[in-house]
Structure formats: structure tokens, C-alpha cells
Amino acid sequence: MKHDDEAHKHYYPVEGRGDGAIGGAAAFIAIILVPAGIYVAWNTVASWISALFS
Known about the structure:
Blueprint: H1 11-52
């Protein structure tokens, strides 16, 4: 298959779009998961401290 074939001229630019979408999805997931992880970690530490002093 030649890369300059008319039937496949739109294939390569479309393929390249996936990288940005994956990066955007990873950033979105990180924005959600990082605060959630901090919240869970803080609640875990607070519950341990509460259990120690109760």
C-alpha cells in the first residue's frame, strides 16, 4: 500500500488525534483522582488519630 494512495489520504491525520485525546483524558482523570485521593488519605489519617486518642 502506498501512503499517497487516494483511498487512504485521510488515515494518517486521524490516527494522530488519538494522542491528544488520551493525554486529555489522563489529565481529566488526574484532576478528579488527585483531590479524591487526598480526601481519602486525610480521612484515613484523621480516623487513625481519632482512634488513638479515644
